[in-house]
Design brief:
Elements (H helix, E strand, L loop, with lengths): L2 E5 L6 H10 L3 E6 L12 E4 L5 H8 L4 E4 L9 H4 L6 E5 L9 H11 L3 E7 L10 H6 L2 E5 L4 E2 L4 H13 L7 E4 L5 E2 H12 L4 E5 L1 H10 L4 H16 L7 H6 L6 H12 L2
Helix pairs in contact: 1-6, 7-11, 8-9
Length: 272
């Protein structure tokens, strides 16, 4: 019986990772800040603590066989103290944009330097990020978007979790990097139109300028460097959309879930 530590266990992807590991008969341990409100199944071992607290991570990682790592910050600061406390076997939820100098690239470097038996799962944009538009859908008929023609290969959170689970359970993935995406390129505008069609509510798109998009991120507390890089990245996707890979069906044996499926599953969140 394996014991696997899941960080971010109460999040959008983490809950599916927990479910997949439990279905495989694995003992799951979760590091959570507030166990009382975590809402995890009773057979999950819960350790109270924060991912930024090296002592808490050390306690949570004691005697586990592997860990699923989700680093929740857009800054690598503090990670150099956390990575050494993890077990040797780590599956890290990275990003398709894990370039050198990015937070994802820096975490990957820390894991390599620590001598971890690592696997990097690099998803494209999360379909679930569209939840940020839910309030606009419920209360009005307009969505303000930067670069509505930016093309993304959005991936369902269940597919991310499915790949993470199988890589945690199969050591043949040690030392491998998996770029995973949804099955198609869909622009930001097409994402809005898909949700609108499923919900049955017409929505208008008001394009944002680059400066306005950057300011909106700053108003939400984003780091200026992150805001700049995000706006630059969205701009680049108009002419050069994100790639589409076949990694999900190759690894899991089932087709990657399209954005329409995600929209249908989450439609109640967008209805008044």
């Amino acid at each position: 019986m394996r014991t696997i530590l899941v960080t971010g266990a109460t999040g959008r992807v983490g809950r599916h990772v927990v479910a997949g590991l439990r279905a495989a008969g694995v003992t799951v341990r979760a590091l959570v800040r507030t166990p009382g409100s975590a809402g995890l199944p009773p057979d999950v071992e819960v350790v109270r603590g924060d991912i930024y607290d090296a002592d808490a991570v050390r306690r949570a990682a004691a005697d586990v066989d592997a860990a699923f790592l989700l680093w929740p910050s857009y800054s690598v600061e503090g990670a150099e103290k956390i990575v050494p406390e993890l077990p040797r076997r780590v599956v890290y939820l990275s990003s398709l944009n894990a370039a050198p100098g990015s937070v994802w690239g820096d975490i990957e470097s820390l894991l390599r330097e620590a001598g971890s038996a690592w696997t990097f799962v690099r998803p494209s944009g999360f379909a679930v990020n569209a939840q940020a538009w839910a309030e606009d859908f419920r209360t009005g008929d307009t969505i303000r978007l930067p670069y509505p023609d930016a093309g993304r290969s959005m991936i369902h959170e269940r597919d991310i979790a499915a790949v993470a689970v199988l890589t945690l359970l199969d050591d043949h993935h040690i030392g491998q990097t998996h770029d995973i995406t949804g099955p198609e390129v869909i622009t930001l505008g097409e994402q809005v139109a898909t949700i609108a069609r499923v919900v049955g509510k017409p929505m208008h798109i008001e394009p944002l300028t680059a400066d306005a998009a950057r300011q909106a991120m700053l108003d939400q507390g984003a780091d200026p460097a992150l805001a700049d890089s995000a706006v630059t990245y969205w701009s680049s996707l108009v002419a050069t959309p994100e790639p589409v890979t076949t990694t999900v069906p190759q690894l899991t044996g089932h087709p990657a879930l399209p954005f329409t499926t995600w929209a249908e599953e989450h439609a109640p969140e967008f209805r008044a």
